[in-house]
Amino acid sequence: MILVIALLALAAWAVVATIVELRRDGYRRIPTDRNRSDGRDALQQAESGHMYR
User: Fold this and answer.
1) Which pLDDT tens digit goes with each residue over 8-52?
2) DSSP label of 25
């Protein structure tokens, strides 16, 4: 029974720690800056005879 309680406590701590880290990691959705992209697709520059994935 003690192991079950310890496992539940560890799982709860892991969930809380994950939520905290996800909130403070600094990742936010940022729109693409169209001034910095040249508007060309990588496949437009592909050479024949080469395989691009």
Assistant:
1) 999 999 999 999 998 888 777 777 777 776 666 555 665 666 665
2) S
> Is 52 within 8 Å of 43 (Cβ atoms)?
yes
- Which residue is it, tokens 């003690």? 2
Instruction: Single out the residue of 5, 43, 21 nearest to residue 51, CA to CA.
Output: 43
Which alpha helices (DSSP H) does the chain contain, by range? 2-24
Task: Return the amino acid letter for 15.
Answer: V
pTM of the model: 0.48
Contact (Cβ atoms closer than 8 angstroms) between residue 46 and residue 52: yes
Burial class (CB in 10 A: 0-12, 13-18, 19+), 46: exposed
Give the separation between CA 1 and CA 9, rounded to whole angstroms. Answer: 12
